[in-house]
Amino acid sequence: MKAYRVGEKLRRFYHYYPGTVAVIGVRDPRHGANFMPAVWNAGLSFEPPLFGVAVSPKRHTYAALEAGEPFSVSFFPYRQAELVARLGSVSGREVNKVEAFGLKVHWGEALRVPLLEGAFAAYELEPYDRFPTGDHTLFVGRVRAVWEDEAAFDPDGVPTPDRADALLYYGRFLYGRPAPETRRLKFR
Q1: 72 in Cβ contact with 123 (< 8 Å)
Q2: Is the pTM above the cut of 0.85?
Q3: What are the extents of the domains in the chain?
Q4: What are phi and psi of 132, to 5 degrees?
Q5: Distance from the Cα of residue 97 to its chain's centroid
Q6: 90 CB contacts (<8 Å, ≥6 apart)?
């Protein structure tokens, strides 16, 4: 391994990848709904149930999140990689993604948030907090409803490669899937 000192900007920042892609959904005053993929996402708390997404102010979705709009986060299988990549290839400022990509949208049960068909899981999120973090803001939402394709989860509620086949992002437009070899390791 070789080290290098970091100034203001890194040469590469993909060391912690791959990451599961989350597709954020927000209401859009012009188009009804807008969606953007975000790899910088994480579960943050179990009680209360909190989930966070980091979004750049350059993104069209940022304005809705900054205004305190509720939002959705959906997780897609690998077979939806092209759709997810397309969602990130254009801005909702210029394109009505629902019409342009023929998206099938349904609306949340607990909150009026758009969700895309084809996900194996999704959350309806009520704004909870936000934190500026350099060139992104971490938007934290409280989970108010969960959508699950039960076939994507094992009996313990885990989305395994053979069931969910979660879409992974490796950076620089490289998408993949989990290896089929998985092991449940328990030490007690």
Answers
A1: yes
A2: yes
A3: 19-176
A4: -65, 135
A5: 16
A6: 97, 100
CATH no. for 19-176: 2.30.110.10
- Measured CA to CA, the distance from residue 84 to residue 21 in angstroms comes to 8
> What are the residue ranges of helices labelled H in the chain?
60-66, 81-87, 97-100
Q: Model confidence over 39-93: pLDDT tens digits? A: 999 999 999 999 999 999 999 999 999 999 999 999 999 999 999 999 999 999 9
Distances (CA, A) of 123 to 64, 112, 162: 17, 12, 22
Name the β-bridge partners of 17: none
Burial class (CB in 10 A: 0-12, 13-18, 19+), 141: buried
Phi, psi angles (nearest 5°) of residue 148: -140, 140
Element (H, E) at 132: strand 121-133
Q: What is the largest CA-CA distance in the chain?
A: 55
Is residue 130 within 8 Å of residue 138, measured between CB atoms?
A: yes
